[in-house]
Amino acid sequence: MFFHAFNGYMKHAFPRDELKPLSCDGEDTLGGYALTLIDSLDTLALLGDKERFAFSVEWLGKNLRFDINKTVSVFETTIRVLGGLLSAHLIASDYATGMRIPSYDNQLLHLAEDLAYRLLPAFDTPTGIPFGSVNLLDGVDENESKITSTAGGGTLTLEFGILSRLTNNPVFEQVTKNAVRGLWACRSKINLVGAHINVFTGEWTQKDAGIGTSIDSFYEYLLKAFLLFGDEEHLFMFQEAYGAVMRYLFTDPWYVEVNMDSAAIVWPLFNSLQAFWPGLQVLAGDVDPAIRTHAAFYSVWKRYGFTPEGFNLATLSVQQGQKSYPLRPELAESTYWLYKATRDTRYLDVGRDIVSSLQYGARCPCGYCHITDVEDHKREDHMESFFLAETVKYLWLLFDLAVGGDNLVESGPYKYIFSTEGHLLPATPQISLVREHCSYYGAYCRSNNSSLRQELHSPVISRKSEEANGSGVHQGWGPTALLSALPDREASSGSGLVKGLCRGLTHGQKIGVTYFEPQFKTKDVSSVDKREANVASHKSPVVVISSDANPTYVENNNGSLEESSKTEMDNQSAEQ
C-alpha cells in the first residue's frame, strides 16, 4: 500500500506537494517543496528501504529551500515539514539505526533550523500564542487573523524542543513552551480549553471544549512533552486537563463537546479526529476506558466502511456536511497502541477491516483517494501526505508487531515517541536526559553551579508575563527553573534564559548511564571531613553508600543532587 502510493507520487507528482491519485497528477497545497516526500522519509527508513531513503535525503539536501514568498500554516508546517526533517536527520546521522547515510552531513538539520527561524515571527504576540500563518520570506502579514486554534498554538513543543537540543539554541523550545503556558493560563475555572482564541487578548472566540477538531493534539503534546523531555510542568497540565475531560466530556463510551465554562453539552457529536484519544489513554496508562471508546469508534467504521468527519450521537447518523473521510490515521493509530498494550487479537481484526476498506474503497490508479461521502463511497482526486506518514505506518506497525516486531520502533536502539504527524522522535540521551545531567554543549544547566559559565540570552520573542496571565513558573530542571533563579529578572519579561557551557558527553552519558564512584559512610568523623573536602574540590554530586549497600542521595529543595553539610552528615552517621 505504501509503495503503490509513494511510487505514484514520485512518478506523477514529485516535486510538487501532494498527489492527485485519480488523474495521476500533482498539486502544491502547502509550500511547493515536495511535502509528501518530506512527510514520507521516516516511513521509508522504517520499512528498511535504504536506497530510496538515501536518495530522498540527498535530493532534499541539495534542492530544498525555504527562502520563498509563501504564506504557510505554522501548525501544518511544523508537524509535517519540520518534524519530517528532524526525524529523518536523527535516523540518517546515527549508525545505531542501521540507516546511516555515509555522505550525510547534517543537511536536513540545517534546513530544519532555517525553517524554524522563519516560523519564529509568528510567536511575537502579547500572549505568546502564535499566529496561525506566517510568510516564509516576510514574516507575519499585517492583516493576518489574530484568531488561532488551540491545537495550532499548542502542538509545536516536540519538534521545536528537539531542534533546541540539536542546535543548542533554547529559543525554539522556549517560545513553544510560552505558547502552551499562554493557552493554559486562559483555561476555564473547570480546567477546560476552547477551540479558538485571540492571540492578542487571550479571549476565546469559540468556547466549545472537546477532544476533536481544533483541540485534539493540544492534549497529546502535553503528555508527550513529558514522555520525551521529562517536563513535569507539562505532566501537571496534562493531569489537570485529562481529569477535566474525563469528568465533563466523557459520556461512556463517547465524548461530547461542552461549553468550557458551564460544561453544558453543546454538540453530541463523534468527530473523526477524536479517534486518537484511546491511543493517548494507553500512553497515559488508562487502558480500560480506551478499550470501550475504541470499540464505539470502530462501530462507526464498520457501519460505513470509513469514519465520517462527523457522526451525530443524537440521531445516530452522519452529520450533514461532514460526510467525508480524508484517509485519516487516528483509528489505526489507537488500534496499534491498544494491540501493543493488550495483545488482544481483536485489534488485528480491526486492522484487517481498515486495510480492506482502504483497498476496496479508496485505492486509485496512482495512490489512494479521499472519500467524499462515506455513505456512497464517492472518491475525490486528492491524497494527503499524512496517508504515507501515518495511516499506512500505523497499520504496518500493527501487523509487524503481531509477527515479532523486528523493526526500528519495536527493536531499535531507542524508545520512540510519535509526533502528531506520526514522525519517529527517539528518546536519545541528548534529547531526553537533559534533566539528569549536562548532556550536550550548551545544555540547560544548574544555575547555581559555580563551575559553569553562564550566559544570559536577551529576549527574542515577547510574551505575556506570568503575573498577567496567571501561569506560575515550575521549579525544577530546565529553562523554567533557570528563569525563576535569575536574581535580577524583571517580573514582566518572562523571556530570559540561562544557558550553561557544559562539558561534552562522557562515555556513560552517550549510552545513557551515569557512573558513580562509591564512597562508604563510617562513624569516623575525620573521614566525613575528608569526604567533604573531596566534594568541594570536585564539585560533583554526592552518592553515599551505607553499610547495607543502599545509596543515600542528598537532595536540595529543587530535587537535584547536592552536597550535604558536615552537620547533616554527622547527624546521619550518629543515627546509623
TrEMBL record:
Could you tell me which residues belong to the region Disordered? 547-576
Pfam families per record: Glyco_hydro_47 (PF01532)
Localisation: Endoplasmic reticulum
> What is the superkingdom listed in this entry's lineage?
Eukaryota
Q: Which PANTHER family match?
A: ER DEGRADATION-ENHANCING ALPHA-MANNOSIDASE-LIKE PROTEIN 2 (PTHR45679:SF6)
Family, per the entry? Belongs to the glycosyl hydrolase 47 family.
The name this protein carries in UniProt is alpha-1,2-Mannosidase
